């Protein structure tokens, strides 16, 4: 995920936490009616059904906390990506940093596998004339 996608996911999770938070409270009640599949037995209501009432506050609180944790995780990942981008792109103008070298398809000379573990494929590019920073020409 990109930093922007992490920020969007964080906003989604923060919004998702609001629903369970609104549902929680000391007066929250869930009514559940169950009926016996075998029919009426001694001591049961005439129709073989009964109703129970529970307070779901704890479950709603856990759901809200989980959404808030996921939002915080996404915000942290976005921040980490921003720091990594800042280090990797030091000395490159914001305009050059935001323009993908792959926009200039005619300048892609070749692509080859990279032997490094977990590394991206190597890409050979001609330096597009639009790049203002000489160092940007070699950072594909």
Label this structure with key terms.
single chain, 140 residues, alpha+beta, 2 domains, two-stranded antiparallel ribbon, two-stranded antiparallel sheet, 3 helices, 4 strands, elongated, disordered C terminus
How would you explain this protein's 3D organization?
The strands form two sheets. This protein has a two-stranded antiparallel ribbon with strand order 1-2. Strands 3-4 form a two-stranded antiparallel sheet. The protein has helices at residues 3-23, 57-88, 94-98; strands at 30-35, 49-54, 108-112, 122-125. It folds into two domains: 1-88; 93-140, no CATH class. Helix content is 41%, strand content 15%. The longest helix has 32 residues, at 57-88. With 140 residues, it is α+β, with helices and mostly antiparallel strands. The relative contact order is 0.14. The protein has three helices and four strands. Helix 1 (3-23) packs antiparallel against helix 2.
Percent strand: 15-25%
Q: List the strand order in the largest sheet.
A: 1-2
Report Rg: 28 Å
How much helicity do the residues have? 40-55%
- Pick out the low-confidence regions: 135-140
What structural class should be given to the helix and strand makeup? alpha+beta
> What is the straight-line distance between the termini?
19 Å
Q: How many β strands by DSSP?
A: 4
Largest sheet: 2 strands, antiparallel
Number of helices: 3
Task: State mean pLDDT (0 to 100 scale).
Answer: 77
Q: What global shape is seen?
A: elongated
């Amino acid at each position: 995920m990109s930093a922007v996608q992490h920020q969007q996911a964080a906003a989604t999770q923060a919004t998702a936490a609001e629903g369970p938070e609104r549902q929680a409270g000391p007066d929250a009640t869930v009514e559940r009616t169950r009926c016996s599949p075998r029919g009426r037995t001694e001591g049961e209501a005439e129709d073989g059904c009964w109703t129970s009432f529970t307070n779901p506050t704890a479950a709603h609180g856990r759901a809200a906390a989980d959404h808030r944790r996921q939002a915080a995780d996404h915000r942290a990942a976005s921040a980490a990506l921003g720091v990594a981008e800042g280090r990797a792109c030091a000395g490159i103008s914001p305009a050059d940093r935001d323009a993908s070298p792959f926009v200039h398809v005619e300048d892609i000379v070749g692509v080859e596998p990279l032997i490094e573990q977990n590394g991206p494929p190597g890409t050979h590019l001609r330096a597009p004339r639009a790049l203002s920073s000489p160092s940007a020409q070699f950072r594909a």
